[in-house]
Amino acid sequence: MTARFIALPLFCAALIAPATPPAQAEEADETPAKRTRIFIGPQFFPEYPGAKDLGVGPFMDYSRSPVGTPFEFEAPDESIGLGLIGNDRFSIGPAANLVRKRRASDVGGQLPEVKRTIEVGAFAQAWITPAFRLRAEGRRGINGHDGWVGNISADYVARDGDDWLFSIGPRVTLADAKVQRAYFGVAPTDTAASGLASFRPNGGVQAVGVTAGFLRQLTPSLGIAAYARYDRLVGDAAKSPVTRAFGSRNQPSAGIALSYTFGGER
To answer: Taking the CB of residue 229, how many other CB atoms lie within 10 A of it?
Structure first.
């Protein structure tokens, strides 16, 4: 599953980055003034891939845009990314994500813990039409599950500038064998203690789902943002005795936040 946990250090780094470098101060008349939008609130999501219990964490975002230009669309469930190459139609860049740990006690106390995982990788996205976007991500866990995960998404986007925005689209989550076995496998050495049958899943499609998001500006400064996502485990992840005994094939997520927009005055 895509873990929708915003990495706070990266978010803070974006906040403290200078909005206008001193060297550009003298070119203010030629450089469009920019607005900033921040939103923050709670979100609920599966504690780890395959979990039946929901955890809570921050749902937040930071965006900047020139005055007169709508804020760039970002799906509420995508990983942190920074477009380094491309234009308004196509872009690629680094992506990062954080997955909470699965404790041994979450799965009966007799299966291995999966440590908190930092995933790093890259994304590519393309606007096929002004209202239809495709995006793909590939990330590798540098600790924890130590495997590769991928996400493929499509979004239909309807909006009226920044006054309101609605998006909806399908999701496919991919995982290699390392990830699948970390969360859904049962090693032969663990069968006696856990009471579960040995299970060695392969890599492939882990889940399919859909996400919907909504933004509404209430005043020039204040607004609201909300999203809902539903994923269904498929393949080996759904067949796993770990899922059947301790988890759930249903993987819902949801979040709501208040937004604040400022800046742009000359």
So the answer is: 23
- Nearest residue to 212 via CA among 200, 197, 229: 229
Residue that the structure tokens 């998001």 belong to: 213
Distances in whole angstroms, Cα of residue 42 to Cα of each of 19, 72, 91, 100, 241: 27, 22, 29, 16, 32
Given phi > 0 = left and psi -120 to 50 = alpha, else beta, which region is 263? left
Q: Are 92 and 135 in contact (CB under 8 A)?
A: no
Tokens, residue 126: 């393309």
Q: List the beta strands (DSSP E) in 26-131.
A: 34-46, 54-66, 80-81, 85-86, 90-99, 117-129
Alpha carbon 204 to its chain centroid, in Å, reads 19
One-letter amino acid for residue 152 of the chain: I
The whole-angstrom separation of Cα 55 and Cα 116 is 14
What pLDDT shows up at residue 95? Answer: 97
Reported as a single tens digit per residue, the pLDDT across 193-236 is 999 999 999 999 999 999 999 999 999 999 999 999 999 999 99
Pair 242, 48: CB distance under 8 Å: no
The model's pLDDT over 95-120, given as tens digits with 9 standing for 90+, comes to: 999 999 999 999 999 999 999 999 99
Residue 185 in contact with residue 196, Cβ under 8 Å? Answer: no
What is the distance between the alpha carbons of residues 106 and 48, in angstroms, rounded to a whole number? 10
Question: Any idea of the CA torsion for 195, 196, 198, 201, to the nearest 10 degrees?
Answer: -160
